[in-house]
Inverse folding.
């Protein structure tokens, strides 16, 4: 069994995306024997008010029983938008969202912003995870209108330090994974999950040794990235890097445990 921890519907304003609907996601999941997928709406990154994007995702999933059974929706919330508290409450209580995704680079705030810290604490109190992407798209071939700044792993340290007992998902790790000893210790102690989609997960075996096998799991960042690389990084691990039990943790168990599916 596989569970994809990182996928999207919706549009990207600077490039054409294909296979970016709930129908497309489910067809891809069936083809690759993926049982469930965590999904967000890309449109929420670019809407001034993110809540209509969450409503769009909810309506799409509600349109088909199979989507409801197998897609795990995450809300996009902007903590510097005036109505964010109502957005969060409605997303969880009425729309059934199972987590929150934050996009500080696109919405114009830092992880130290008091409203961001307050949001993460509220999500923590609900027992749900907060997801952060280190990269959305490769900045090199992007439109001049897109952002050209990307995060390394240490850039998310401030919010983990601020709310160390929250659940975190760190996705699409495309850049430097080096941490100071105290930062690494913080990561190891935190309830934290990293997916296998990012380009800097090329040596997954070494990262497992560094951070622990319970910290990683399958993710694709589809449809922006391809659907197979994240899985191949798990399947290509040698026996001395990961036995079958560890691979099962990476394929589905770690994210299933985090999300309490």
């Amino acid at each position: 069994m596989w569970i994809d921890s990182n996928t999207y519907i919706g549009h990207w304003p600077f490039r054409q995306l294909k296979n970016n609907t709930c129908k497309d996601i489910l067809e891809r999941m069936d083809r690759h024997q993926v049982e469930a997928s965590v999904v967000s709406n890309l449109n929420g990154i670019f809407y001034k008010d993110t809540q209509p994007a969450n409503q769009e995702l909810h309506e799409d999933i509600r349109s088909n029983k199979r989507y409801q059974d197998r897609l795990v929706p995450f809300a996009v919330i902007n903590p510097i938008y005036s109505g964010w508290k109502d957005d969060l409450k409605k997303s969880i209580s009425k729309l059934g969202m199972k987590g929150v995704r934050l996009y500080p680079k696109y919405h114009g705030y830092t992880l130290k912003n008091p409203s961001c810290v307050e949001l993460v604490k509220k999500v923590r109190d609900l027992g749900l995870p907060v997801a952060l992407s280190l990269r959305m798209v490769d900045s090199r071939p992007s439109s001049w209108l897109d952002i050209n700044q990307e995060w390394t792993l240490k850039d998310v340290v401030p919010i983990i330090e601020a709310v160390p007992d929250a659940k975190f998902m760190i996705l699409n790790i495309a850049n430097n994974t080096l941490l100071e000893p105290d930062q690494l210790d913080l990561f190891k102690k935190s309830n934290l999950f990293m997916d296998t989609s990012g380009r800097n997960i090329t040596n997954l075996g070494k990262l497992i040794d560094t951070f622990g096998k319970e910290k990683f799991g399958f993710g694709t960042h589809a449809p922006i990235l391809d659907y197979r690389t994240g899985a191949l990084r798990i399947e290509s691990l040698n026996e001395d890097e990961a036995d079958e039990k560890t691979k099962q943790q990476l394929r589905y168990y770690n994210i299933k445990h985090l999300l309490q599916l």
Observations:
- The first helix runs from residue 22 to 31.
